[in-house]
């Protein structure tokens, strides 16, 4: 048995035999053609470009239908790359002047593009390199230089293991037989990861080199929850995962039957249970899983999943899609939270020594009004379509909040003068995710309509621990008593000032921690769509009194470990079904 650790990008457990793709990659031999054949090579290239163009358009249409427009746009961007005039002039030079075969020229030019992107050491651009390699592979396939793996001709369940999987290959995976996949390279922000999550295929990426050691593995396990790939498991491990997979399946089925029941505690307290989304297509899963609304729409993903900066219209269309789907339910649109680990487009990003303490989020938006204004215009216009609220991230000072609000007013004036329909009286809220904001929260309460606690950043800034650094991951705990005290302080101010407050950080997606939050006084939670069923189940199993007793006990504990052990113990008593082995 071999157990390998990678980055979990799409949750779930899958067990099947391995289908190993291109362990050695492929190499196109250097081939110089006679002068008389140059025209033929041009014709072959043109034909290949036309076919790949059609295939990409087809992938765009199909992916848009199954995973939403945002994901489908990945292929629109690839189409644009394929028709890039610079690419074609380089290819023409190699074929026409250097007499390279079409395949050799394609391989040379596109490989150079991809490695130039990879060398920039920018994770966002490194992920785009995969798109370039995707196009290369498709062109070479058309030119007959590489043969495609038999991914379409499957007739039994498999787990795909590959050096990498391009976005188009991922989108084209046969869901009936491909139960999961693992790759040697790739990051959590890549398009492959985005597509996998959209299609809900368990996946682990960035494992590092492993293909040479697994030739012929009969049985592999992908643990998309914990980022593990297990090759040739022992009977004991296999049995453990079989049980986990079976348990997940039957629990999901049982919870699905309760999806449209309200999130009400046993004493009749109605909890507002909302969903966090990154892409408009996720609203379908939110509705199916019974979300009361969208509590956090991370709009920066509109930027991160596209090679072009989105226009006001792109923003508007995305928001309109979400609002219309949610059909009168509340939708909280968070303005751009770019910077730090969420890199924007080249011209917006800059080298910083401490990016999490640097020009990120609302700070970046306020310094780039050409970026921020179109978004605010789109939010105000879309607000006319439903129950929309706007929320500013990473607010640290009152001045920032006032500046952001003022800009919103200015933009509203512009729309009014231009006679463009919009709604100006939409509720305006702020995220509470910096200790300075918690300390000054009574002042902020006079200037906002609602608060939402972002526990992911609040833990990072309270504990001085970078949330994306695996070396200090053990210190990064939202259940640390120091973080809990700041959360309690925020809830108390919200109570005193009668300002609605919710929790939208990952903390609330953990059912045990969600019960603690209820005990601390929270009545509004927002969680990723996949967490909705389990959190609702926990809520429906408890009374507020039981939750308050939990919070009372937790106040006396001194470490995150003690808190989590106690919470798990309580969850095992109150909602035993949710405690998996
Ligand atoms: C948070 O910080 O808790 C939050 C919800 O925002 P994000 O994870 O997008 O920074
Ligand atoms: Mg945050």
Automatic annotation (TrEMBL):
Q: Which organism is it from?
A: Aporhodopirellula aestuarii
State the EC number(s). 2.7.3.9
PANTHER family given in the database record: PHOSPHOENOLPYRUVATE-PROTEIN PHOSPHOTRANSFERASE
> What range(s) does the PEP-utilising enzyme mobile domain occupy?
155-227
What is the role of this chain? General (non sugar-specific) component of the phosphoenolpyruvate-dependent sugar phosphotransferase system (sugar PTS). This major carbohydrate active-transport system catalyzes the phosphorylation of incoming sugar substrates concomitantly with their translocation across the cell membrane. Enzyme I transfers the phosphoryl group from phosphoenolpyruvate (PEP) to the phosphoryl carrier protein (HPr).
Name this polypeptide is given:
Phosphoenolpyruvate-protein phosphotransferase
**UniProt signal peptide:** none
Question: What range(s) does the PEP-utilising enzyme C-terminal domain occupy?
Answer: 254-542
Q: Which gene encodes it?
A: ptsP
Record's keyword annotation contains Glycoprotein: no
Required co-factors: Mg(2+)
């Amino acid at each position: 048995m071999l157990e390998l650790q990678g980055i979990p990008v799409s949750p779930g457990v899958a067990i099947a035999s391995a289908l190993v793709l291109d362990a050695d990659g492929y190499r196109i031999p250097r081939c110089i053609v006679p002068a008389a054949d140059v025209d033929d090579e041009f014709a072959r290239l043109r034909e290949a470009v036309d076919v790949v163009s059609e295939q990409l358009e087809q992938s765009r249409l199909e992916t848009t239908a199954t995973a939403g427009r945002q994901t489908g746009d990945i292929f629109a961007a690839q189409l644009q790359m394929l028709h890039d005039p610079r690419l074609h002039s380089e290819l023409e030079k190699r074929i026409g002047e250097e007499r390279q075969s079409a395949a050799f020229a394609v391989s040379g030019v596109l490989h150079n593009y991809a490695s130039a992107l990879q060398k920039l050491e920018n994770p966002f651009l490194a992920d785009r390199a995969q798109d370039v390699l995707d196009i290369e592979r498709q062109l070479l396939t058309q030119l007959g230089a590489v043969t495609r793996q038999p991914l379409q001709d499957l007739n039994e369940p498999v787990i795909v293991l590959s050096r990498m999987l391009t976005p188009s290959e991922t989108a084209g995976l046969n869901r009936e037989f491909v139960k999961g996949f693992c790759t040697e390279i790739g990051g959590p922000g890549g398009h492959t990861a985005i597509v996998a999550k959209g299609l809900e295929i368990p996946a682990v990426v960035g494992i590092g080199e492993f293909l040479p050691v697994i030739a012929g593995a009969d049985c592999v396990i992908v643990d998309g929850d914990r980022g593990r790939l297990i090759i040739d498991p022992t009977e004991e491990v296999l049995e453990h995962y079989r049980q986990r997979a079976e348990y997940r399946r039957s629990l999901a089925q049982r919870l699905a039957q309760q999806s449209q029941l309200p999130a009400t505690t046993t004493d009749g307290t109605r909890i507002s249970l909302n969903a966090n989304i990154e892409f408009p297509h996720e609203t379908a899963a939110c509705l199916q899983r019974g979300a009361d609304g969208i509590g956090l729409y991370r709009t920066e993903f509109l930027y991160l999943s596209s090679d072009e900066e989105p226009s006001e219209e792109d923003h508007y269309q995305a928001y309109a899609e979400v609002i219309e789907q949610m059909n009168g339910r509340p939708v909280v649109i968070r303005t751009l939270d770019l910077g730090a680990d969420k890199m924007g487009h080249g011209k917006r990003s800059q080298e910083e020594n401490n990016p999490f303490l640097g020009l990120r989020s609302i700070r970046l938006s306020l310094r780039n009004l050409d970026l921020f204004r179109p978004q605010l215009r789109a939010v105000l216009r879309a607000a006319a379509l439903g129950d929309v609220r706007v929320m500013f991230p990473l607010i640290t000072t009152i001045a920032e909040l006032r500046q952001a609000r003022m800009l919103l007013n200015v933009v509203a004036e512009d729309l009014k003068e231009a006679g463009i329909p919009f709604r100006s009286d939409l509720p305006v809220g702020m995220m509470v995710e910096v200790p300075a904001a918690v300390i000054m929260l009574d002042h902020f309460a006079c200037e906002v309509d609602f608060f939402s606690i972002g526990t992911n950043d609040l833990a990072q800034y309270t504990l001085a621990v970078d949330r994306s650094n695996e070396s200090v991951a053990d210190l990064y705990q939202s259940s640390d008593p120091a973080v809990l005290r700041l959360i309690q302080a925020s809830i108390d101010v919200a109570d005193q000032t009668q300002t609605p407050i919710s929790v939208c950080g990952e903390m609330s997606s953990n059912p045990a921690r969600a019960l603690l939050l209820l005990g601390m006084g929270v009545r509004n939670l927002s969680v990723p769509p996949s967490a909705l069923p389990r959190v609702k189940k926990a809520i429906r199993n408890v009374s507020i009194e039981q939750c308050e007793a939990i919070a009372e006990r937790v106040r006396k504990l001194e470490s995150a470990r003690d808190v989590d052990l106690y919470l798990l113990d309580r969850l095992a008593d109150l909602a035993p079904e949710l405690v998996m082995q």
